[in-house]
Specification:
Blueprint (H helix, E strand, L loop, with lengths): L115 H10 L10 H37 L10 H22 L1 H14 L16 H6 L17
């Protein structure tokens, strides 16, 4: 009987109690690894487009436009609004100028901050123009100056008219003051002429006064038809509306050039 000696490094005899037995030997130890494939598979070639088919190009991602301030953000289809969120607001009435703006007459634009001389010039130059807009200074300077002028002229007309009436009253009572000279009649005629000229001047500025208030209402964002309230005894209403500041939506009352 032939006894095979144990491999080198392996203890002879049974292992002692409580020790861990060594692992079994690897049967593949010393076997050489298989070499890599010397002929790797070629990458897949793109297929040529079929006849008549449009070539396909990679699509570029579209940049997302950030929502403008104050504009409601679009909600996906079927999405429910968040709890406590305000409902989307719908715009009514004036929606602003069309894309590209209006091509309007620049002469219809208001001129804020003009002085009294320029305001009077515009007042008479736009004598009967009911289109366009007028700033607050364009409206209030002519109204103030014309009102003061008419008051002064009325006072000047009443001075000789009153003196003449007094002289004629004294002459008719039997006194000799002014009875023989006829000065009372002359003063009454002079006062009447001045009064008549004042009335004619008042009638002459009626049309431009209506026109400038009409344009002032446009500049404040209102329709000029509000002036018709003056015919119903409510002239204070359009006068208060003329105090409002300019609004951009008044541009819709300007003349559109072809």
């Amino acid at each position: 009987m032939t006894v095979t000696p144990p491999p080198p490094g392996q203890p002879v005899g049974p292992p002692p109690e409580g020790s861990i037995p060594p692992p079994p030997p690897n049967p593949y130890a010393g076997v050489p690894a298989q070499p890599a494939d010397p002929y790797p598979a070629a990458p897949a070639q793109p297929q040529p487009p079929q006849y008549g088919a449009a070539p396909q190009y990679p699509q570029q991602p579209q940049p997302q436009q950030p929502p403008q301030y104050g504009q409601p953000q679009p909600q996906p289809y079927g999405a429910q609004p968040q709890y406590g969120a305000p409902p989307p607001q719908q715009q009514y009435g004036y929606q602003g100028p069309p894309p590209g703006g209006w091509c309007t007459d620049p002469d219809d634009a208001p001129r804020p901050g003009v002085g009294p001389k320029e305001a009077l010039r515009l007042f008479f130059r736009k004598y009967a123009r009911f289109t366009g807009r007028a700033s607050r200074s364009e409206f209030w300077w002519p109204m103030l100056l014309l009102s003061l002028a008419l008051i002064v002229v009325y006072i000047i007309a009443w001075i000789p008219l009153g003196i003449g009436i007094g002289m004629e009253a004294a002459a008719s009572s039997g006194t000799s003051y002014g009875a023989s000279s006829g000065g009372g009649v002359a003063l009454m005629v002079l006062g009447g002429v001045i009064m008549g000229l004042c009335v004619l001047a008042s009638w002459a500025v009626i049309i431009p006064s209506i026109a400038v208030m009409w344009r002032r209402l446009h500049d404040a964002g209102f329709s000029g038809l509000f002036y018709l309230l003056s015919l119903a005894g409510l002239g204070i209403v359009p006068l208060i509306m003329c105090v409002f500041e300019s609004k951009p939506e008044g541009q819709r009352y300007d003349r559109v050039l072809p």
